[in-house]
Design brief:
The structure is a homodimer.
Chain A: H1 2-15, H2 19-28, E1 33-34, H3 35-41, H4 46-58, E2 62-67, E3 70-75, H5 80-96
Antiparallel strand pairs in A: 1-3, 2-3
Chain A binds a DNA duplex through α3 and α4.
DNA sequence: TGACAATATTCCAAAAATGGAATATTATAA
DNA sequence: TTATAATATTCCATTTTTGGAATATTGTCA
C-alpha cells in the first residue's frame, strides 16, 4: 500500500525531472496550447515535444483535447503554481548558501 | 540562463523521483533523524539509505549535522508540505478519473 | 593503540531515460 | 481518392540511474 503510493508519487516527479518537460509545463501555464504552438515557441524537434507531452500526460499532469488535425494540451493540475513557488524558494536558498 | 534554470529545477525533481528517497523525505518530515534511525525504521540497507541521503542533500533538499559518530539529517525546505499536498491532489484526481 | 560502531564510498551489472532520425498515422480539403 | 498538415511512433546508440555487495572511513572509548 504505502510503498505503492511512494512509487506513484515518484512517477510524477520523474515526469517533471527533465528540463524540456519543465519548459513545456511552464509554457502551458499560459493556457491551453496546440502541439504546433509548442513546437513553434520552444526550440525542440516536433517528435521530441510530442514524446515529452505524452510522458507528462501519462503522469497525469496534463490533458489533451483533439480538434481536427490539432491536439490541444493543457495543465490538469490546479496547484502547479504553489509547486513551482516552492521550487523557486529552494533555488533561492541555494544561491544564498 | 533560462534553460539553466529549468535544468536546476529538473535536478530537484530528479532527486524526488525515487520511492526510497520520498520515503526518507516523509520520515524526515517528523523532524531531524540520524542515519541509524532511518535505517532502523525504513526497510533498506544502510548503504542504500546513505546514498539516498547524499542525493537529497546534493539537491539541496536536506541538510546534515554531525555529532560524534552520528550524522543527523533534516529537511532544508519549509514548503515541502505544500509540495506534497499538491501531489496528493494530483493522485486523488487521478483515482477519480 | 586497538576494537568497534556509525556512516560513506566504490564497484558493478542490469534497467531505464535521453534525444536524434526516420517513418507512420490521422484528419481534412480539394 | 490523393495530397498535405499535424501529430505520434519506432528504432537505436548513448548516457544515466538503480540497488546489491564489499569495503573504506571516521570518531569514540577502553
Amino acid at each position: 500500500m504505502k510503498s505503492n503510493l511512494y512509487e506513484k508519487k515518484a512517477k510524477i516527479f520523474k515526469a517533471l525531472s527533465n528540463p524540456v518537460r519543465l519548459e513545456i509545463m511552464d509554457f502551458l501555464a499560459n493556457g491551453e496550447k496546440c502541439v504546433c504552438e509548442i513546437v513553434e515557441n520552444l526550440d525542440y524537434e516536433q517528435p521530441h515535444i510530442s514524446k515529452s507531452l505524452i510522458k507528462l500526460k501519462e503522469a497525469g499532469l496534463i490533458k489533451d483535447r483533439k480538434e481536427g488535425l490539432n491536439v490541444y494540451y493543457s495543465l490538469k493540475i490546479c496547484c502547479m503554481g504553489e509547486f513551482f513557488n516552492c521550487l523557486n524558494k529552494i533555488l533561492e536558498s541555494e544561491s544564498k548558501s
